[in-house]
């Protein structure tokens, strides 16, 4: 079967009554930790990083995060995620709105259906559906999906895409297939814009990182979203949890014709200064305490409740925030340039 049809499974299973014991997956919210110009994976130590990110997870996040020295669970005192042993960090680009007069405003985030958080990211960890052993990440593990410099679509099997959300409910559960697109939606989205980032499910079994932060992991040779027929390439034989980010951008305050350009062109721009949508990306730095993620995977934990894990309330998770390291950018209110980017011609 084609992956697009099989891709129905993950989001279907994640939503309420459709949840099925045969397709368990963890789905939980990680509230906003900080919005900052930092990128310890791609530009470690650099303050500010080239573009603005929204970051969630453990509060040991900082500009450097040297994999040899930075022990996330030991250095963290809290996490903005539901599972309180998860001190990992997760981050993506930030969405901006460009008004008719050429000024920009950061688009606020909202929380996914059925969860409670202050914006942030809904994180999935999806094991194979057929009961196969899945190997949790090792300390120091990190990876990157998407490309902040991309100027064209990524081909027939995208891993980063957008959906124009209906006011309530979800039009379809198919991930990265129609109605999703690699480009940003062209009209008003009553329920905001959702962006989904899907990470690889196969690991080389040796390296916790690679120079491009990608080569140590791979997508399966068939069924990229289908965890029932995952077949890893020989070079990357170890099945790992499928990490997926779901980010909801609340664009509703901008759904006014008079705010959009006269030509009606879609006005949203990623913090990479990308008005097309190709550069959204997701960064992951593993930081689960001890064997907690392995236990959760072995127990096939489902949703955001798991007897194998410690859980905190959304209120506790929302309390975990950190101050910005790079404070020179204006990140609220109307601005003439996206932080770190040159203004586009009007
Ligand atoms: C980042 O955090 C680690 C661990 O707490 C610490 O050793 C390091 O000095 C911090 N780096 C920066 C740039 O703050
Ligand atoms: C630009 O447009 C926005 C939205 O209408 C408005 O709030 C803002 O004040 C305007 N800025 C300038 C400099 O005109």
UniProtKB/TrEMBL annotation:
Keywords, comma-separated and alphabetical: Signal
Signal peptide range: 1-20
Ion transport keyword on record: no
Domain of life: Eukaryota
Domain DUF1996: 39-288
InterPro entries, sorted: DUF1996
Presence of keyword Cell division: no
Protein name: DUF1996 domain-containing protein
Species for this entry: Coniochaeta ligniaria NRRL 30616
Source taxonomy: Eukaryota, Fungi, Dikarya, Ascomycota, Pezizomycotina
């Amino acid at each position: 079967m084609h992956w697009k049809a099989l891709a129905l499974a993950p989001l279907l299973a994640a939503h309420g009554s459709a949840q099925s014991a045969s397709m368990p997956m963890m789905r939980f919210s990680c509230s906003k930790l900080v919005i900052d110009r930092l990128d310890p994976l791609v530009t470690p130590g650099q303050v500010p990083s080239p573009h603005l990110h929204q970051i969630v997870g453990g509060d040991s996040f900082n500009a450097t995060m040297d994999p040899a020295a930075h022990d996330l669970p030991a250095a963290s005192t809290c996490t903005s995620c539901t599972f309180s042993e998860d001190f990992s960090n997760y981050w993506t680009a930030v969405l901006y709105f460009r008004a008719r007069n050429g000024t920009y405003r950061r688009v606020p985030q909202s929380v996914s259906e059925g969860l409670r958080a202050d914006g942030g990211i809904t994180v999935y960890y999806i094991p194979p559906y057929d009961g196969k052993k899945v190997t949790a990440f090792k300390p120091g593990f990190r990876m990157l999906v998407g490309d902040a410099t991309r100027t064209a679509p990524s081909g027939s099997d995208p891993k980063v895409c957008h959906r124009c959300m209906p006011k309530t409910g979800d039009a379809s559960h198919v991930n990265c297939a129609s109605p999703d697109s690699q480009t940003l939606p062209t009209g008003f989205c009553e329920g905001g814009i959702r962006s989904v980032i899907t990470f690889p499910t196969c690991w080389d079994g040796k390296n916790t990182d690679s120079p491009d932060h990608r080569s140590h992991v791979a997508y399966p040779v068939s069924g990229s979203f289908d965890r029932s027929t995952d077949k890893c390439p020989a070079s990357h034989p170890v099945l790992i949890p499928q990490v997926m980010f779901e980010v909801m951008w609340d664009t509703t305050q901008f759904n006014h014709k008079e705010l959009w350009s006269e030509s009606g062109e879609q006005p949203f721009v990623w913090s990479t200064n990308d008005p097309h949508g190709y550069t959204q990306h997701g960064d992951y730095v593993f930081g689960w305490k001890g064997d907690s993620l392995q236990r959760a995977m072995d127990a096939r934990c489902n949703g955001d409740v798991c007897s194998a894990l410690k859980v905190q309330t959304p209120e506790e998770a929302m309390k975990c925030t950190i101050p910005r390291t790079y404070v020179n950018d204006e990140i609220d209110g109307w601005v003439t340039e996206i932080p770190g980017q040159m203004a586009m011609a009007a």
